[in-house]
Structures are given as C-alpha cells and as structure tokens.
Amino acid sequence: MSHPATAPSGATSSPASAAAEQPPTVAELLAFVRRTAEDAQLIASLPLDPEGRTWVRLEGPGGSEAWLIGWPPGTGTGWHDHADSIGAFLTASGELKENSLAARLPTDGWKTLELTEDVDRKRTLAAGQGRAFGQNHVHEVLNESTTAHAVSVHAYYPPLPQIRRYSRSGHVLRLEQVERPEDWQ
Known about the structure:
By secondary structure, the protein is mainly β. It has a domain at about 25-105 and about 120-165: Jelly Rolls (Sandwich). The protein is built from 3 helices and 12 strands; from the N terminus they run H-H-H-E-E-E-E-E-E-E-E-E-E-E-E. The strands form 3 sheets. Strands 1-2-10-4-8 form a 5-stranded antiparallel sheet, with helices on one face. A 4-stranded antiparallel sheet has the order 3-11-12-6, with no helix packed on it. A 3-stranded antiparallel sheet has the order 7-5-9, with no helix packed on it. The longest helix has 12 residues, at about 25-35. The chain starts with 14 loop residues before the first helix and ends in a 6-residue tail after the last strand.
C-alpha cells in the first residue's frame, strides 16, 4: 500500500498534493468498486466455494480497505454495521439483496432497540448495481439465489475498526457481538 510522501519542512504543498492527502469520499469509493467490478479477469480469478463465502483483500483508494467477495447460493452476512467507516459495494456478477435500516442508531451504550415500523429498506442489486453508505449503516447482504454464485466488490474508509453484529426478531434489534480486525485474521 502506498502512502503520500511528507513534504519537507518549510515546503508548501501544491493543490494536487493536498488533494492526494484527503480521505476518499463515498462517491470515490463507489467509483472504485464500479471500476474494479468491471475487471472481468479479476472477478473470474476469485475462487468460489460451494459452501461458504470467499474473499480476497484488495488495495483500495486513499488508504481504504477493499474486498472482492464470493457469495454461494443462499448465503448472507447477517445484520451488522461497519462502525465509523463509510463504504460502498457493488455486485460484479449474480444478484445480491440488501436489507437495511433507514435510521441512525446510537453507536454505544445499548444492547436492545425497538425499531419503528417505517425503517426497513430493501434493495436488489443486479450485476453492475451498487450503493454507497455513511457511518453506522446497519444492513444485511444476501445471495438469495438457490443456484448461482454472486461476486461483489466492497470498500471502506477508514479501514474497518470494528463490525457490530446484531440479531433481529420482528422490530427488536439486539447487539450480539463486536468484532475487531484481529478477529478476522
């Protein structure tokens, strides 16, 4: 992963170098996942497992974390968020469904929340379709196909500090687990 060089003491930075030091926006992350998903050779190189999701870490723009993920039929993530990271993902092949909450939840200090009836959002994302999201976006992603794999590209900034996993029963959302990067190694 490359990092921008530090300007010598007393040097002035040019507008171009100042822009290079800015973190990526959700629009830039979405553009990255779109470009990456168009790389047919990369998408085809992902090993697909009939039983479980597979993934390869990619180098994202501006120090972001990026992943190429394979989804066997009938798999999903469960309800989760990406803490303080912004992100984007795009379906490169197949079709994914995203269920999300159109509500900003408190970030800490709770274990159970009762959701209002109008917070659920559902999207079907066919190949070439994606979305960007802000901090603390709670969602689940599913491959509901019974026969076909799906492949997607994801990018997050800052690199994921944690993922909070939830269970859901009707309108009750319960925090079940907090995972940190060392848990994914």
